Structure formats: C-alpha cells, structure tokens
Amino acid sequence: MEGGFAPFSFRTKSGKLSGFEVALAKGVAKQLKLKPVFVQTKFDSLISGLDTKKYDVVYNDMSITPERQKAYTFGREYLFTKSVLITKKGSDIKTYADLKGKRAAETTSSNFSQAAKKAGAQIVAAPGFAEQLELVANGKADVVLNSQDSWTAYKKVHPETNL
Asked: Are 106 and 125 within 8 A, CB to CB?
C-alpha cells in the first residue's frame, strides 16, 4: 500500500500505519491466521512489486481495469468513492469538460491520470497525492483528479488550504 493516502492508508503523527485499508488487511490476515507485513511504496510501483514478488497482495484504492484484470486476480470491490476535481480557489475549472488543455497532476498509472488524458489534459507526473496537491498549490499544475474521501481527509488536516 501507499501509506500516504488518507483515509485509506497513512502514517499517524506517531508514525504508525493506519487507515481503512490497513484495518481491512489486518482483518483478512486474522481470518487466514496470518501475520501481515506491510510494505509501503508509491502507487506507480504497486503492480511491479507484485510482479517481482516483493509482496503477495495490494491493498490500495486501485480500480479494476480490463488491462489489470488480464494479469491479476482481484478481490470483491470494497470501496466506492466519488471523484473530485481539486483546483486553486477561483479556478475556471468547474467540470470534467474544462480539463481540455489544462495540466493535471497525477500518478501516471492511475485511473485518474487516464481520465484526465481522455479529457484532453496534459499530465504532470507526481508520485503521490500530497505531491499532486503541492503542484497545484504552487501553480505547476492546474488540477488534481482524485478521491473525494482523500480530499475530505486532507481538508480536515489542512483547513487553511487555498485549494
């Protein structure tokens, strides 16, 4: 898992790995009478880690795609969240159609990246959600497409954000 993507998996102030997917993984491991060992990695490395047997399973907010289904086995869907467009306050980006010609900060292998490209946005590669938000805040990108749950968790911790 990423370990930097609240509320799914993240480090608490004390450094402890926490979040919905951490609890889910622990619950599944308990049922299987296994002790989970968590490996934190960037989103774009999750699939390659499976390929190289760095770990046995991925718990991360990752959508099922036809390409991924050809090579990997997926469990039942356990997460349903809306997607949002995150911009600086006052941005002219209000809808998906407004992404044409804009710069979207995304992890390159994510479904959000694919959606932004499909809408005509140029992708500004960033390894994680915090880095994506920083690119928009600094004006190096115009928008981030991501999970409403993650955005809500971020705003709770950063209520002063100008995004």
From this structure: yes
Q: What number of other Cβ atoms are within 10 A of residue 129's Cβ? A: 28
Question: Mean pLDDT, to the nearest integer, of 10-31?
Answer: 95
Closest CA to 61 of 97, 102, 90, 25: 25
* CATH hierarchy code of domain 4-71: 3.40.190.10
Which CATH code for domain 83-157? Answer: 3.40.190.10
Q: Where are the domains of the chain?
A: 4-71, 83-157
- To the nearest whole percent, how much of the chain has pLDDT over 90? 80
Task: Give the predicted TM-score (pTM) of the model.
Answer: 0.77
Tokens of 68: 């991924």
Mind listing the pLDDT tens digit for each residue in 22-41? 999 999 999 999 999 999 99
The strand pair at 103-106 and 122-125 is best described as parallel
